[in-house]
Amino acid sequence: MTNPLLRRIGLALAAPVLAAVFALVISALVLELSGSDSIDTFRTIGSNGLKLETFVDTLNRATPLFLAGVAAAIGFRMNLFNIGVEGQYILAGFAAAVVGAELNAYALPGFVHTAAIIGTAMLVGAAWAGLSGLLKVTRGINEVISTIMLNFIATGGIVAALLPKVITDPTAANQGTDEIAERAWLPELNGLLEIVTREIGKGRRLTGVFLIAVIVGVIYHVVVNRTVFGYDLRSSGMNPFAAFAGGVPPKKMVFLAMVLSGLVAGLVGMPEILSENHAYDQGFIQGLGFGGIAIALLGRNSALGMTFAALLFGFLDSSSAVLQVQASASAEIVKIMQATFLLAAVVAYEFVSRIRQRDEVARASVATDVAVDSAAIGGASA
Amino acid sequence: MTWLTNLPAWARWAGAAALGMLLLTIVQSVSGTELLTEEGTAQAMVRWSIPILLAGLGGLYSERAGIVNIGLEGMMILGTWFGAWGALNWGPWGGLLAGLVGGALGGLLHAIATVSFGVDQIISGVAINILAPGLTRYLSERVFSGEAGGSVSQSPRVDGFDSFTVPGLADGLGTIRDQDIFWISDMAGFARGLVAEMSFFTLFGLLMVPLSGWLLWKTKVGLRLRICGENPIAGESLGVNIYGHKYLGVIISGALSGLAGAFIVLELAGLYRGGQTTGRGFIGLAALVFGNWRAIGVLAGSLLFSYPFGLSLVDFNAESSGEATRAVLLVIAIALVGVAVWAFRANKRNDVILAGLIAAIALIWYLSTDTAASWLPNTMPYALVLIVLFFASQRLRGPRTAGLPYRKGET
Question: Do B393 and A140 touch (CB under 8 A)?
């Protein structure tokens, strides 16, 4: 590969492709070692992937993962590790469900009701994340520790303490908040998809939050890459001292990045609240915050990369359900695949970035050699 | 007060513990509960502190070698599964060893990623935390679900270690306890809980504290390991094998976390269950920070953080369930008033206001309730971590280059 452009493109693709191959090999090994047929398992996953219903399911699962990924990525861009997306979205989802149920009693237009729910979620998420930011800025407490602690305080403390107080029917099978009135539900987007496809069966409904995720993705991309604020954010992440010298207040940036991260984190639970359960109950989906961190790492914090990563993980999650039904192999193999892929990918990224650096050094030294040579020739001729 | 700072660390912590006991005794007499310094409370506290302690010590080795290990939780999860599997096949010692090996494998993975490949340490740790539950779930589905009492998320029951009582000491402390002398008898009773009916695994965990302190601060290996965390480039110039010692630190870290997992399975739960670590690896990390990256400090942190939980175990089984846990609120309030006074003398106005504010909240909470809710003890350790870090974070100092990437030959 002598062509530098080809080499650059090759390097960019090499990492994820290598990681994917590695993950497939490892999972095949695990499957074979534990007595399952790996080819058969992969075929099941593959043939399932071609179905339209799987596609809808994948989009539904990818939507909250992508949002959680963006939330984590906003922090990562600044070298801030918001491990607390988990607690932020669960607390936000709970608060939004409570507010949503309370508003049932008032005569409101549907969109106001919806907006109030989404607004509550975003504000609560932002406040909870902002608390970590504040602790870091005022007291220098590492955000990794504080967000982890706040995760536990949010889920084991606040939600556990308040949930029993809002349950109106203590005999219900799944204890939770009251269902939100239908006017506030987000419309399903099946119609949108069916413009280009056949009718979607099996009762699959594409969540309306999908559109919100697309909008968030676009805003994220534009703000980070095309605005002064995004530039400040990235530069303080890369070199806080240089950014400070350039007039970017580091403390303010830390706090803002945490708040924005929490703002997006608040949206992660919205598919549950606005499209699926319309309530917060004990079965409220957990683990999306950590999934989002994986998405941000895989997608290298870029909107496009995270889109692919979320779709991939969403698809794998969806396959896990199929494997469960068909019982040809443990559905848990999917989790192993995801985690190996993630580990392999971060190693491969690091590897590729080192090759890039070496290229850069080589290019620079060639350039200086040329400059020195021509200077020497110039000196000789004079 | 130079004599105070000249005391050895264990003596200072012992003094702090005695003062803490005095506070507990006073609160106890005010709020009419007897559980705060009860023998059973001490016993539960120690038992539940061991996983936190082992994970915290694990973090100590790793961070002293310059590698931040967020993956403690994941390695602990590996320890739970391997511990149960080993115990099912070869009894408790097999479980202990298998848990150790399982955790060490997780540590090896972290070391390969961070030391050899230079992956960001937090990222690798997060990845391990995602990998471990998936892997153990897969393994249980394959191994445990075929057996009686086992399933995809649970192993059959396993046996734990035998327990023993330190002879003489326990009787002596029992005698002092029965004398009913204010503070002294409470301390004796509490201490008796620490030496009576102790499991061998608990003893094993506690012995890791002096062992780690000795290994890290009194041996050559320890010195070399610590230079990896303070100034690897200087170490390199002296011919220290930095990569090798970093590997060593992170693998020991994983092994100790694995032991923590095995302890949960063998001593606390009696079986493997998915999600049973409940974030103890992270509390271990917090105990490490609280203990200022010292072995004895980690012990103090893990005892402090497991106290509310140990108390709640005794408290919520007792008749007046929740009363003693409520009394802890008063303890916190008084301790924070102490912090406020100290901050006032040090002329830190903001600290005085904040400590006073939190103390007031705790006091009002105490006064306005009769019993504590059952969720409170589960949350207290985490809140405690934040409060401690809030007032003390600027006095704590970790290894200088922990978390930073290091490549041989680069400055």
Answer: yes
